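REQUEST ID: PR-0412
SUBMITTED BY: lab tech R.K.
PRIORITY: routine
TASK: structure prediction, single protein chain
INPUT:
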Amino acid sequence: MQLLHCYRPTYDNISTIFKLHLTWVLSVLNNLILQIYLTKNRRQRIQELLEKQEKLKTELAEAKRILMVDPTTWSYDRERRISFF
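STATUS: complete
OUTPUT:
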């Protein structure tokens, strides 16, 4: 009958396991930080685009006024329907 050897952790094994775990934890944290950074940048870019949109709406309204065009024409809020057929 063959005896099964019991696993006895040594300092080197524990150190290696700890290093691997620490590397994994740091990797997860780096991914979370990156996601937070990207989300913040997306929000900032969306805010910039919304501000630009408001500026363009104002410019369009002013152009309509100068050209004496009915303000309800060329609406920026109109739903666009694109047909690919």
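NOTES: The first helix runs from residue 11 to 67.
REVIEWED BY: pending
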